[in-house]
Design brief:
The chain has 3 domains: 10-43, no CATH class; 50-121, 2-Layer Sandwich (Alpha-Beta Plaits); 135-428, Rossmann fold (3-Layer(aba) Sandwich), CATH 3.40.50.200. Helix 6 packs parallel to helix 9, helix 7 (253-265) packs parallel to helix 8 (282-293) and helix 9 packs across helix 10 (396-405). It is of the alpha/beta class. It has helices at 22-32, 65-74, 98-107, 135-138, 162-166, 212-221, 253-265, 282-293, 373-388, 396-405, 424-428; strands at 10-11, 37-38, 50-59, 78-83, 88-92, 111-122, 148-149, 152-153, 175-180, 194-199, 238-243, 250-252, 270-273, 275-276, 297-301, 320-325, 343-346, 350-353, 367-370, 420-421. The longest helix has 16 residues, at 373-388. The chain is globular and about 65 Å long. Strand 7 and strand 8 form a beta hairpin. The two termini are 44 Å apart.
């Protein structure tokens, strides 16, 4: 299936149409006895899990161009894009013949692989301290003094000790690529933080008309200590805005792979992907490996399935997969988990930036809460960026090891995730 924003979905039963037959009346009475119906993500009307009529093909480097042209013509294929850094072509073929073409190309000795161009979606549930107005009251994940969130008192140690980290470093201009639905170009807590940006979706804009990317960007690096809004996990970090999900919150794997290689080529030290899909992809993994081999730390959401099912790219070896915890330092009920998940971070009722213009998620303009592994992931990315700006930042392997080795071994460690819940203060401590 496509990449999903991780969030809660509720459908209320407000009324039933008049039913004349006795049997249907009894059924209606039964349904009306239920206060509400909770519908999991998997029960929502399904989106296509792949781009219709598109495949991803990697021919062997030894294959002559004339052969490539002939083979594609034989399959009624047309190159519509390419991910040049990993040598992969995006090929348009008749949709009704897509599976047959993949099978035929996969058997060809001059083809390394052929696969569908899967769809990914955002993974959220649209649900001396800095002087940012919402910091002390609402940003429990950064520094929690026992705030009441959602009617419940939090556990003081459930935060990531951000202020302790900021006493050591605030980021020193480390670049974090946010590969998402875009970033609001006019947001007062974000517009000045963007160094470069690119649209990979064909939407014609790098702005965020869905809402997810702006929320994620604020968690990473909102302007901090400016007396408005929120504080970012990495206050002095810079952002690369790679729009790889469209204005409906979904995107082709080819877009995401292109965004990964673009970020790696534009000096990102961290790549944040608060998105995921259930389909494993060679193309996506090769893009991740390209970034890793260029020294980038790649961080991605574990998913909101509430079970052990793997989400990609989070499940790849060279990605830090992030689960979500709540303000009691427990695994969030919706968070995916398992021995393939590396760390956890706060991801329930996370207050951050939202677009200042109309957008699809339709939360409050400017700022609001969001929940999901989509929110936990940028908090982890922010801490990774802080580590990069210390003497521990000698390599991506060293940075990843530091994040994981200093994580707090909270309840669930070893069962739901491997290393623990991240601790920014411990990660950068001398």
């Amino acid at each position: 299936m496509g990449l999903l924003l991780f969030g809660h979905f509720y459908v209320s039963l407000n009324k039933l149409m008049k039913i004349k037959t006795l049997a249907l009346s009894l059924l209606a009475a039964l349904l009306l006895s239920l206060p509400f119906l909770v519908v999991p993500v998997s029960a929502q009307p399904s989106q296509p899990n792949r781009v219709p009529g598109q495949i991803l093909v990697k021919f062997k480097d030894s294959a002559p161009q004339a052969f490539v042209n002939t083979e594609l013509k034989r399959q009624n294929g047309k190159v519509v894009d390419q991910i040049s850094r990993i040598g992969t072509l995006v090929v348009e073929v008749p949709d009704q013949a897509l599976d047959r073409v993949i099978e035929a190309l996969s058997r060809n000795p001059n083809v390394e692989y052929a696969e569908e161009n899967s769809i990914a979606t955002a993974l959220d549930f649209p649900v001396d301290a800095p002087n940012d107005t919402s910091y002390a009251l609402l940003q429990w994940g950064l520094e929690n003094t026992g705030q009441v969130i959602g009617g419940q008192m939090g556990t003081p140690d459930a935060d990531i000790d951000a202020q302790g980290a900021w006493n050591v470093t605030t980021g020193n201009l480390v670049k974090v690529a946010v590969l998402d639905t875009g970033v609001d170009q006019a947001h007062p807590d974000l517009s000045s933080k963007i160094d470069s940006q690119k649209d990979f979706t064909g939407s014609g804009s790098v702005d965020d008309f869905y809402g997810h990317g702006t929320h994620v960007g604020g968690i990473v690096a909102a302007v901090t200590n400016n007396a408005i809004g929120v504080a970012g996990t990495c206050p002095e970090c810079r952002l690369l805005n790679g729009k790889v999900l469209n204005d409906s919150g979904s995107g082709a794997y080819s877009w995401i792979a292109s965004g990964i290689t673009w970020a790696a080529d534009n000096n990102a030290k961290v790549i944040n992907m608060s998105l995921g899909g259930s389909v494993k992809s060679i193309t996506l993994e090769r893009a991740v490996n390209y970034a890793w081999n260029k020294g980038v730390v790649v961080v991605a959401a574990a998913g909101n399935s509430g079970n052990r099912s793997k989400t990609y790219p989070g499940a790849y070896t060279n990605v830090i997969a992030v689960a979500a915890t709540d303000n009691k330092d427990q695994k969030a009920s919706f968070s995916s988990y398992g021995n393939w998940v590396d760390v956890a971070a706060p991801g329930v009722n996370i207050f951050s930036t939202f677009p200042t213009h109309a957008y699809k998620i339709n939360k409050s303009l400017g700022y609001d809460f969001g929940s999901g592994t989509s929110m936990a992931t940028p908090m982890a990315s922010g801490v990774v960026a802080l580590i990069w700006s210390t003497p521990y930042g000698t390599s991506n392997l060293a940075v990843r090891s530091r994040l994981e080795s200093t994580a707090d071994k909270i309840s669930g460690t070893g069962k739901y995730w491997v290393a623990g819940r991240i601790n920014a203060g411990g990660a950068v401590a001398p």
